[in-house]
Predict the structure.
Amino acid sequence: MPGPRMATGAKPKSIRKTLLRIGGYVVGQKMKFVLVVLFVLISALANVAGTYFIRPLLNDCIVPMIGKPVTAESLQPFVRMIALMAGIYAVGVLATIAYSQIMVRVSNGTLNAVRNDLFNKMQDLPIRYFDTRTHGELMSRFTSDVDTLREAITMGVTQLMSSALTVAGTFIMMLFLSPLLTLLIVGMLVIMTRILKTIGGRSAGNYKKQQKAIGMANGYIEEMIEGQKVVKVFCHEDKVRDEFQELNESLRQSATDANFYANVVMPIMGNLTYVNYAMTAAAGAALVIGGRMDIGSIASFLQYTRTFSQPITQISQQLNVVLAALAGAERIFEVIDAEPEGDDGCVTLVNAVRNEDGSLTETEHRTGTWAWKYPHSNGTITYTQLNGDVRFNDVTFGYDEKKTVLHDVTLYAKPGQKIAFVGSTGAGKTTITNLINRFYEVNDGEILYDGINVKKIRKDDLRRSLAMVLQDTHLFTGTVRENIRYGKLDATDEEVIAAAKLANADYFIRHLPQGYDTMLTGDGSNLSQGQRQLLAIARAAVDNPPVLILDEATSSIDTRTEALIEKGMDKLMYGRTVFVIAHRLSTVRNANAIMVLENGEIIERGSHDDLIRDRGKYYQLYTGQFELS
Amino acid sequence: MFRQLTPYMRKYWWAMVIAPATIIIEVLVEIRIPILMAGIVDQGIPGKDIGYVMKTGAVMVLMALLSLVLGTVSSRFASIAGMGFGSEIRRGLFNKVQEYSFSNIDKFGTASLVTRLTTDVSNVQMAFMMVVRMIVRAPVMLVSATVMAYYINSSLVTVFLAAIPFLAVMLAIIAVTAFPRFQAMLKKYDVMNGSVQENLISIRVVKAFVRSGYEKEKFKNANDRLMKASVRAEKILQFNMPIMQLTMYACIVAIMWYGGGMIMAGSMKTGELISFISYVTQILMQLMMLSMIFVSVVMSRASAGRIAEVLSEKPDIADSGSGKDPAVKDGSVRFEDVSFRYQQSSEDNILSHINLEIHSGETIGIIGSTGSAKSTLVQLIPRLYDVTGGRVLVSGKDVRDYRIHDLRDAVSMVLQKNVLFSGTIRDNLKWGSEDASDEEVEQACRAAQAHDFVMSFPDGYDTYLGQGGVNVSGGQKQRLCIARALLKKPKILILDDSTSAVDTATEAKIREALRLNHRDITTIIIAQRITSVCDADRIIVMNEGEINAVGTHEELMQSNEIYREVYDSQQKGVAD
């Protein structure tokens, strides 16, 4: 059985709030929205008024003329009336064109704004947020949730307005034509809404069941197709087929019910309208015979009975879509409302030149020398050169309150030193590097960067001074050149090539079909793992930062390939402070200091030779007596 | 491409027939209502015949109710047909994928297959249901309303006989113009989604390089392009409504004009005129419906095409074995001049001219760098791929002559990218052998060094694993996968880099257990670590799709440069 899965389209929690908020986006495009409202109004009025003209036409122009000689003069009121009617209708059509055309822009503008807000917000969310959610989950905010919202906005907004106006206008005209018949219509309307409500209730219940069944079936599809190769190796095809058919069948049943209740609205409402029509015709005829109504009124009224119920049917049919859209919108707003990554740092990174007396002065242009600009509370500003000196003083950290991951970690890395972390998964290696660049904030203790507490440094500037190469390379769709340039957006072609040469990547890049302009797609799937890794290293190199973090940068490469990359790595590391996390111990041997981590504590530290000599945990790890995973 | 989907309508064909059939009756009943109304106005009122009016009114109500019942029935069957069709397609697709070979799966990619089975199926099924409901209704309504109108007044019919072609042509123009624009929009949509996905996957890179501003700008461009394309497509579609209104209003005005004249001249009655207008409204509404169906069918065409692709894909491994001589007798394997490439079209062979003989019960280690085709080589044994040249023999018989089921039962393979499924540990292990007893399960787990950690969980073998086995560590997952493979009691066991996350000491114990309890099993171990293979009977060194050398650890250390290099890179600096 596949695990439970949240089906999309559950009920929205607060309809009012969400509606208002979507309304805010729509109304945000003020002028256009005002125009839409105006034109919808005109269109609806024209529709109501035009139909009304059937009455005076029949009563005043046609019926009195029956059997009389037709002359140009006697026809004049008829012609004028027809012309007026045509004119009103023409205005109505023009208004419809106008509002539908503007509305396309309004709705797409709204969706565009929602998407932009959503994406921009995601960029500002802390890493912590992404830890607790899958990519698929966040992606579905962009796909299914925005999609259902699109449907609701494009159809909903104008339909709602024009329906409401049409219903109101029609109702007034009906009252005007015949209060008695209107009473009959209202009576029928009460019955109709009763029926609608019953169907709506059933429909919602079945819709929920259907969504659950869809979730189960899709979950199963996903799991089995992901594991398809295992299914084949174990010859499990038949069993999987049967299990799926069970889920598929229950989906079919619930979907049949759900769709039945959704579909049945149209014939029921349509034919109830006919019942209305029939009763109006009979009752109206009775009134005419009794001399209390005229033929023209019946004609108009009958046409109105149709325009009256149609919008109600339409709205009721869209109800599920609208509810699903609101639930989707709610999920979108949840992301937009999430707490962004805070930043209260005031220390910034600036270009500097060293004066003859050894002090630093800030400049505009790139000098290759960087300095931390520290504005003190008393108004003075001090400059400290960026060197890459990192110190941890009694750092304690936990991803949540209850569980501490790092206990009292103290360590230092002087500029140009290479520090390595080893230890099993969950020992806290990656956590340490994530604290340096402030993906997370320490709970206790402090981290000093060139003597400045990292909490005081603006995050963007802090991260710009560090470069990271991760185990998963993550290249972007674009050319090789663009991917390297990601490390420094204004890098010249020469700088890009220099970085590639430094990373030993230049050779293979030149042998690609279009060299540096070869397009990479799907996370660089047209390259080998080793080549991707080299590009990631070049990307980090072009930025030329004083501090480098290599988080399992080579662990998915076999040792022989690694030997090829090694030279590039060595060149890259030269003269920088480097933090290395490695699965494979051969990569960390030449570090200035190796920290062995276990359960968030540094249990051993020293050079490779020291640690081997001590015959401790590191020795055990190195000789393969201890599991690293 | 829709033709390929027709077989899936077969199971629920009755619903597909009943739904439109009831609709036809419904329409025929419904269509008579306005003309009855005309009778009320033209006979009941002038004759002041209340009895007639009431009787006719009652008939009209009854007819409307009858039509309501028919409409309900029809909705029910339309739902059955639509959802049944969707369910059959989903089943067809899923079963088809079960027949796929590895290379078929590689060709589509799992993510794409999942989308095709979910989103695409639901698109097609909704369009189909709409067609079942409307495709008969609209034309029947159209024709019968026209007939009724003709019956009322044959000369006035000309008005909408002129209007219909106009409307039809306009709607067709709209649909035809809109389709390519929608396709263009969908492409932009894919681009935008792609960039979001890329961004989410790489969020750490984005943050580490402080590129969120750049990413926002990039997204904004994609988003704006999507908006432009989508406005371009939708604004065409938005002309449906006004054109429809225009035609309807023009018809009403024209009918009032000509009809009014006719009434004045006495050749038409007032009630007839009113019902005539009613028919015109009806007819034009149906045309509108037809255009909506047309649009939705056109929209679902892309999805239907993607489904058809999956269905028409030929599984490239055909099960041609006779099954007469089913058993794989022993665990010997022979490669005879085997060559392989993933695509017929590609020029380079992944494997070329491999000759190799593995004896039953032997333990073989395979070592080589990434891309040296180690995995490819062993995947030919259980026929996960078919050779493109030469042949592979298991137990002295070409693998293509076995029934696939028999072959894979005898060859147990632990894949490099392995998967545990949601369910208990026991459920997962029983994939290897469904009727395995608890003792057998435990025995396999002991051999794979998994028993102890399984027992350390509060629920032991009944511990529930989430999808993908998320609640066990990498090394534990690998050991469970080995246990699962062992339960099959295979003749040949292949471990494709399946102990990479297991520590060397535990790994050694697994090998020891295999050696002691499963002497008769031919074991093939692919590994990165020299320690994983050094005590094998023979070690194969692979390099760029060819066998570079075969020998024992000692022999290779002496004679093979690659092997020595790998050894050095791993052992350098270990204090002795």
Remarks:
- The CA atoms of residues 611 and 618 of chain A lie 6 Å apart.
